[in-house]
Hints:
This protein has about 190 residues and is an alpha+beta fold. About 30% of the residues lie in helices and about 25% in strands. The protein has helices spanning about 1-10, 15-30, 40-60, 155-165, and strands spanning about 75-85, 90, 95-105, 110-115, 115-120, 135-140, 170-175, 180-185.
Amino acid sequence: xxxxxxxxxxxxxxxxxxxxxxxxxxxxxxxxxxxxxxxxxxxxxxxxxxxxxxxxxxxxxxxxxxxxxxxxxxxxxxxxxxxxxxxxxxxxxxxxxxxxxxxxxxxxxxxxxxxxxxxxxxxxxxxxxxxxxxxxxxxxxxxxxxxxxxxxxxxxxxxxxxxxxxxxxxxxxxxxxxxxxxxxxxxxxxx
Length: 191
């Protein structure tokens, strides 16, 4: 309950700590005075407040421009980022690479900062995507949230990418024309 409230209201951590302390105090007073009815309710509020504290700590580690918090899932536009490593060549001719995102320009708007990592896949028909680690890439695409498990016991791709690879978004380049530019990194770090 505290996690849901923290996600919707974005209360500061001080509010959560005061709520947890006050609920703990009420539970303690209820227990010492023999009022057995107030104690379970107060302990429930303590747990809710601690859930809010935990959620606040986790989400505050991410910037407001992080892909998982910026509300950009489903947005189509121009994306800018740097390759984290050389693209992996898949057996079916596609390429897959992790991109450190820099910015997004939704259709009809200017570039806005965007952080986080995106798993980019190029279709087998795209032969113009020749890039190396560190290269800056501009492309047209849509940011998608990885699919969660839909059935009990099914593999959860979203959770896998989040926990194993710290990836919160995916994207695909389907056509040659979607690649706007690839700027190679300088040969030396001092240039």
